[in-house]
């Protein structure tokens, strides 16, 4: 009897773990830093396969096939996610490095929609921000590859022949962005940024 009961409990645990693993894998597509603290299901039955995945939320429902029967399962979730926090006050246009930041885990429900999730070696702020603030992308200056008035090389490529021309950037831009440029004769044209020194003229 004890062995049968133990197998039943183990089956329920494996079911819960499998469902948790599947949902975590799905939810990490929405938040790669998600860390589940607790996740419960109702009803908690075995031999289930998820049919429709739920969006990341505190609680909700999803459809699963359990023992060859389609049914709706509810869940309750507690989880954390990672954010970056300023260690010190910063001023407008001030550039800071990685040592001026720290990572912290917060309730995933409190995550700002535009929170900074990946770091560059240095970042610059648009305005003054106080220490302890969660860093948001809207606070930061764009990480331009080319800045206005930079001297760059334009590449004219027709497939058989490539021509290189000296240009001046008339606006700043990131990789892949089309920006306005000026040649040495003062004529305006546009090009797509390839790297910090070259643009492709189309």
Describe the structure.
This protein has one helix spanning 2-27; strands at 35-42, 48-52, 59-66, 69-86, 95-97, 101-107, 122-124, 151-157, 162-169, 178-183, 188-193, 198-201. The longest helix has 26 residues, at 2-27. Helices cover 13% and strands 41% of the residues. Residues 1-16 have low confidence and may be disordered. It has 202 residues and is mainly beta.
Describe the secondary structure blueprint for this structure.
Blueprint: H1 2-27, E1 35-42, E2 48-52, E3 59-66, E4 69-86, E5 95-97, E6 101-107, E7 122-124, E8 151-157, E9 162-169, E10 178-183, E11 188-193, E12 198-201
Parallel strand pairs: 8-12
Antiparallel strand pairs: 1-4, 2-3, 3-4, 4-6, 5-7, 8-9, 9-10, 10-11, 11-12
The rounded Rg comes to 26 Å
Give the termini separation: 77 Å
How many helices does DSSP assign?
A: 1
Gross morphology is elongated
Q: Overall pLDDT, averaged?
A: 85
SS strand fraction: 35-45%
Low-confidence stretches: 1-16
What is the N-to-C succession of helices and strands?
HEEEEEEEEEEEE
Helix/strand structural class: mainly beta
Q: Using DSSP, what is the number of strands?
A: 12
Please supply descriptive tags for the structure shown above:
202 residues; disordered N terminus; mainly beta; single chain; five-stranded mixed beta barrel; five-stranded antiparallel beta sheet
Summarize the structure.
With 202 residues, the chain is mainly beta. It has 1 helix and 12 strands; from the N terminus they run H-E-E-E-E-E-E-E-E-E-E-E-E.
């Amino acid at each position: 009897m004890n062995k049968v009961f133990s197998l039943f409990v183990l089956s329920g645990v494996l079911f819960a773990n499998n469902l948790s693993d599947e949902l975590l894998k799905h939810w990490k597509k929405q938040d790669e830093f998600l860390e589940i603290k607790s996740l419960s299901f109702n009803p908690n039955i075995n031999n289930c396969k998820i049919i429709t995945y739920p969006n990341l939320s505190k609680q909700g429902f999803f459809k699963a096939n359990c023992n060859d029967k389609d049914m709706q399962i509810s869940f309750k979730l507690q989880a954390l996610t990672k954010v970056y926090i300023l260690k010190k006050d910063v001023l407008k246009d001030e550039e800071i490095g990685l040592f001026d930041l720290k990572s912290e885990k917060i309730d995933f429900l409190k995550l700002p929609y535009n929170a900074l999730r990946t770091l560059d070696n240095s970042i610059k702020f648009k305005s003054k921000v106080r220490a302890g603030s969660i860093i948001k992308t809207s606070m930061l200056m764009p990480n331009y590859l080319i800045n206005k008035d930079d001297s760059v090389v334009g590449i004219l490529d027709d497939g058989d022949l490539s021509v290189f021309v000296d240009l001046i950037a008339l606006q700043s831009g990131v990789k892949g962005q089309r920006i306005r440029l000026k040649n040495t004769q003062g004529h305006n044209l546009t090009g797509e940024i390839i790297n910090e020194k070259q643009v492709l003229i189309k």
